[in-house]
Amino acid sequence: MYIHKVLPRSRFCSFDLASITAGPGCMHSFVSRTHLPTLACASMQAQEEVKIEQVSPEQLEPEGLERQWRLVQEKRPLIHCITNFVSMDLMANVLLAAGASPAMVHSLDEIEDFMKLASGLLINMGTLSSDWLASKKLAAKQAVALGKPWVLDPVACGATPVRTRACLDLLSCHPTVIRGNGSEIINLAEAAGCASTQEAAQQRACSGVDSTATSDDALSQAKLLAAQHKCIVAVSGKVDFVTDGVQVVAVHNGVPMLTLVTAAGCSVTALIAAFVAASPHQALLATAHALAAFGVAAEASCSGAPAGPGSLRVGLLDELYRGVSSGACLGAHLQLL
Ligand SMILES: Nc1ncnc2c1ncn2[C@@H]1O[C@H](COP(=O)(O)OP(=O)(O)OP(=O)(O)O)[C@@H](O)[C@H]1O
Ligand SMILES: Cc1ncsc1CCO
């Protein structure tokens, strides 16, 4: 258990969705709903210290997910995203559909001012370049200085030495949460000097952004990484694991076809940033809830047997938009190990 300084949240103008009957997935190609001008309505609140709370089994019941998701919809946290080119569109739409407010801002000149407006930060290491790396480091430092939660997605960590070093640089900036697939978490933990298990060493190789390891393979490394860096670590896969180094929550939602939707992982990491920004004192629980929300939405979108990843991508947005009102949360399956 440890202390993070957080700014509770900023408030934002909302815009009327009442007239929209179909989900945003259907509107996807017609309307961009990222409304940067609404950011001008943000107001900052006083800084306060918040404890990261332990998770109890009752909080993992479907009602707990519903409560946490409603909180996201009420607070509508602004998430400052510095992400890769591939994920920008899906990530922004996932955040909007689930009830948060995305802003993709990466210019070094703008980082400091923008972080003052945001409730949380997402940093993704995909399509890495040196000028963006400078922005990422500055944003992470600024988030910590302002006491705002920030989430690291170490895309393809271990694929090249440059990428691994960049991930380590960001790791030293104290992320609140790290979310990666099995290979990424194993490679990051090893690079950070966490003792390796034999199974983890065997699974270390990765073939780019896709994982060659399961989430089970990475669990012991995830716990070591979380304990060593006093953060929450989430490993995604068939079962998602979320740990603070002591407690482990398993999330049993999702569909295998998500691995064929590029940037699904990047987008769920942004959703984690939104859930944690809405409940910063419950980063472990909020991370598990974000993964469950994404998973139940994917399951709901597959209930009519989608033809393939294209319709899953659209259906996912629609189900995230239907969110708590669809009853999908009842299918949430979270477990304290
Ligand atoms: N076999 C599976 N069954 C069910 N859900 C899965 C499976 N594999 C991944 N998922 C889900 O897909 C989402 C993305 O996880 P994944 O591990 O594929 O991320 P990633 O490799 O980082 O993705 P990307 O690089 O495309 O952003 C998570 O919500 C996870 O729960
Ligand atoms: C395909 C791809 N390449 C760099 S980032 C990214 C998105 C999935 O991580």
Provide a quick synopsis of the model:
By secondary structure, this protein is of the alpha/beta class. The chain has helices spanning 24-27, 62-75, 88-98, 108-117, 130-146, 161-171, 182-191, 198-202, 215-229, 264-278, 283-302, 309-322; strands at residues 3-6, 48-51, 78-82, 101-104, 120-124, 150-153, 177-181, 232-236, 240-243, 248-251, 334-336.
Description:
Pfam families: HK. Keywords: ATP-binding, Kinase, Magnesium, Metal-binding, Nucleotide-binding, Thiamine biosynthesis, Transferase. Pathway: Cofactor biosynthesis; thiamine diphosphate biosynthesis; 4-methyl-5-(2-phosphoethyl)-thiazole from 5-(2-hydroxyethyl)-4-methylthiazole: step 1/1. InterPro entries: Hyethyz_kinase, Ribokinase-like. It is a single chain. The chain has twelve helices and eleven strands. With 337 residues, it is of the alpha/beta class. The protein has a domain of 200 residues: 3-Layer(aba) Sandwich (UDP-N-acetylmuramoyl-L-alanine:D-glutamate ligase), CATH 3.40.1190.20. A nine-stranded mixed beta sheet has the order 4-3-5-6-7-8-9-10-11, sandwiched between helices. A two-stranded antiparallel ribbon has the order 1-2. β5, α5 and β6 form a beta-alpha-beta unit. α11 packs across α12. It is globular, with a radius of gyration of 18 Å. It starts with a strand and ends with a strand. The relative contact order is 0.16. 2-(4-methyl-thiazol-5-yl)-ethanol binds next to loops.
